[in-house]
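All the exercises in this workshop are built on plain-text protein records. A record pairs a protein's sequence with a compact description of its fold. The structure tokens are whole numbers drawn from a learned vocabulary of backbone shapes. Once this layout is familiar, the rest of the handout is easier to follow. An example says more than a description, so a record of this kind follows.
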Amino acid sequence: MAYYMQQIDKSNKEPNDLTIKRKCPICNYYSIGQIIKTRENMFGLGGTFYYHICKRCGSAAIINKPENLEKYYPETYLSKKIYPKYKNLIVMFLFKLYLIVSPNSTLRKIIDKRFGTPNIFQIFNNMLKESKFTSFNNKSILDIGSGAGQWLIWLSLLGFKKRVGVDPFIKSTIQYNRNFKILKGDIKAVKGKFDFIISNHSIEHSQNPQKIIKFARKIINNNGLFVIRTPLIDSYAFKKYGSNWVDLDPPRHLVLLSKKALYLLASKFNFDIVKIIYDSNESQFIGSELYKMGLNLSLIKDFKFTDKQLLNWKLLSDSLNSKEEGDQACFILKPI
């Protein structure tokens, strides 16, 4: 088994003073909060990073953001990958069947196991239930932090007329067709209004979540929905693992939100949180246990946990979700 060997990232400087009051980027409160010292663990790129936890809203913000953040998003980063055309066709065919078969069918169970729960179509089914629409036909959608647009490719099955993604870490703008493009840049590169806006594990990659939610309110249609899926720092997993919590993910995660913080932001920018779905799974324990042992996430296939451990973590994850203590959740917001 290969072990994690930390490299020195000389461009990443340690903060001069960790005991001063710091301003929270969520609630703007100044406090001398708890400091978390951690390291980059996903790829083993090295570097030590510090987070300040706000005493008021409980959110954590990185203190020493690297000057060159792009180097922490290599081409192997998940959101930059696009399935080859033949594989997309196979996946889309399976998902098309998924949408019409019984919820208890074997096919659904197989797809849920392969793509995780909730998968993309379960999420959008929940969105549709909370919206005033009967279908997604001819509707528009914006994916904030879309990567190369894999989700938006699959979402063509649901009938969206206009699909737009935006991401600062792709190489250049991608124009798939007249009604489907991925913009390189931040959210202000987006023009027009949308019926649905999603931020699928991307808001935590922004140093200014307020800016994203404020702009989303400006460009969402009155009957639209804004969906935020994100890790939550006020979770059992963070309390248990601290600096080894897998979803801390420094330095890519610049701000880790709490449930309280999301309610504060929603209220401030005239959104109502109409539904919260806790959807954490056993990966919160698998990754955190690896980090605890000093291993990076790329070694996950080399290290074998026992079937009993995996089952116990799955059952514990389900239990934590039911108690709203899972380490990630899906927030469905309506404009008010």
